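Onboarding guide, step 5: your first structure request.
Type a short instruction followed by the sequence, for example:

Predict the 3D structure of this protein.
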Amino acid sequence: MFVANYGKLNLANTGSDTVSVISDSNDTVVATITVGSGPSAIAYDSGKGEVFVTIYTSGTVSVVSDSSNTVVANVNVESLSAPLGVAYDSVKGEVFVDNSGTVSVISDTSNAVVASVPVGSGPVGIAFDSAKDELFVANSDIGENLAGTVTVISDSTSSSTSSLTSAPTPTQQSLN
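The system replies with structure tokens like these:
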């Protein structure tokens, strides 16, 4: 199991910079991986044995090999973004990362951004529905109206298909 050690960020934007690897057979930490300050979310690619970790303070995604427990790549997702959520499509081999008003699509083959899809402001979480081939992005959008939205993205076209109004300030939830 992989755990992002986000820590408590202070005004200098310094927090934890590690991911803990926990053995599921004995519930102990077997490795600690340095990834960057403020790791916030994790998605796992079991086919390639890679872990994708969003790094809140730098707008990057660290790609970690689960066999060596080392960072094998860093992907810049968007300048000045603060990625909080990540989801993975194992069929297409794509990683989806919410940013400041967009979702970056990363190819797990090249570890590069291959598309950027506009969403609502302040995305705070993302989930992938493999049965429908759709992503759901929770946008906090806590501006003047204090109402959040959920943007629905078609993975087959990498474009927004609709925006739904939700309760104030939606939070990330699993589709499992």
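Each response can be followed by summary notes, for example: The first strand starts at residue 2 and ends at 5.
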